[in-house]
Give the backbone structure.
Amino acid sequence: MSPAVAPLSLWLAALALAAVGLRGRAAGRARRPAAPRAVRAGLVTTAAAVPCPCAVARALARPGDEVLLLRAGLAGRLDGGALARARAVAAAAGALAGTALALASPVLLVAAPALALTGALAPGRRVRALAAARRRAVVRELPDLLDLLGICVGAGMALDPALELTAGRLGGTLGDEIRRVLGDLAFGTPRAAAYRALTERVDAPELARTVAALLQAEELGAPLSRALEGQAAALRAARRQDARERAARAAPKIQLVVAMLMVPAILLLVIGVLIIELARQVGGVVG
């Protein structure tokens, strides 16, 4: 290897390590939770639209699919059978991709079942990711809704007009859910049943505690604004504690990235410079 090629290879390796390290540090920072719309279900709906044998779809159906789709906000677009068809289509696509790899190289024969299994699991994981993102968005928006609702109730507004005004001002996932609750109440659904349906659609303990406080304040005649203030303060305290815990967990990960990637990258750069200098000094002596 020529004296110029060795430093160049080391510098390329250093740049690659530095790029991976910077990406790892960026991923280790505390990030704002993504809104549910950031986790798209387009691939799931597309796979669900592809026809497949009913027996295969029934074999891939799971008992909790309907609840999972409800919490992901997809109950009106998909049902349990559609999610099962998406699993079957994704498994078939994975099997075809694995077969193509096996034909290219017999060593990759094991890729076909592995990719088929991955494809079968992918739609469920996608829907669960959507449900988790939707739950995080609701928990993030809940303190603001409680503050606005407490101001409206404290100013003398009734609960339902205050909820309608707050949902319109707040928007987002929680605003849509509040508007759905108001629609259920307008169609004659009892308040407790409408609130219970809300907690079933959004599997968030924070929202369940807020709903319980609202129902208790209505039944016992307690001041609603005081209950809302207490709930908002408790949610913000819990969010601050969660942010501290995430920051504490992120620090060792960042240190590991620096130790395993950034430091070797710097050392490779230094070694490349030393090789060039040694080649310049020793090359003239040894000819």
Observations:
- The longest helix spans residues 224-286.
- The radius of gyration is 28 Å.
- The chain is about 80% helix and 0% strand.
